[in-house]
């Protein structure tokens, strides 16, 4: 539109120049027609010069009508051209009247008649030119009307397009305002969500710190308990076992010494019994009866010893206990009066042996109890180790959960920032 307006202004300036030249030519023609009274012989030349400018104007008009974009300038020019034609017709009638008056007032020779005829022919030619110009003017007027209609239609279309563009701009402005409001609402909601997640993250961090502190405390307690149990197990149990081992060794040495002494006594008694048997064969019948009684008693005591043996190696020591009935501890045969003393010593030895066996079984039971307690302590230690492993796994899960939550909060924060920048 700006280029069209500038082009119209340019051609309008050209038309103004043309109208100025046309007015100058018309004034020149009028001045020459007014000077006809001074020189009546130059009437034809003045008329020719006066009608020369309309032909030039028509030539300029035919050249300017080639441009389609000069519709508005053509209207003003056509009005000016119609006024020019009217003035030209007036000047023509004035020239004819002047020529008639000159022909009447100056009865001259045939030269004037010829000049009048030439002027009449020129007037007819000029009239034909005027008719042609009027026809051209009508065609130009029709063309200008069509151009004006096209211009009106184009202006209507341009106004319609402008109205549609304005409506679209308004719609776009409304959409932009709505999108800006939605973006502000989204930003506010994202900021609220970010604050909420930050608060939740802070709470989770505090809980994680509490869990870590509790886990550290539990680890310290477990380590202290394990150390204390280890120390107790290594200290008290080891010391107790050492003392019991020393006691058992002493008792074992004592039992070995008793066994060795009893073995020596049994050997002495066996050697004494052999000699006593040899003496018995040569003895009196009374001695034989007493020996028989002693043998029966020995057999009974042997049976008792065999029944009361506990599998600890005492059978071999008590099998020949009946020999002690007739043998003293010095290797001499025992008399019936000295039998009670030897029998009492055998009973006392048997009691000592029973007591030693009871002590050994008691020590064995204590050892079994200690082993059971050791197994229980080992089970407790394994349970504490499993609890420690479970707590470490729970700590790792808590740390992973905290890292996941922290990563989720950061991702949502970046998403909010991208949402703020994308609209």
Automatic annotation (TrEMBL):
Name of the protein in question: Coiled-coil domain containing 136b
Domain of life: Eukaryota
Keyword Coiled coil: yes
GO cellular component: a single term: acrosomal membrane
Record flagged with keyword Cell cycle: no
A GO BP entry: acrosome assembly
PANTHER family in UniProt: CENTROSOMAL PROTEIN OF 170 KDA, COILED-COIL DOMAIN-CONTAINING PROTEIN 136
Keywords: Coiled coil
Coiled-coil parts of chain: 123-265, 346-394
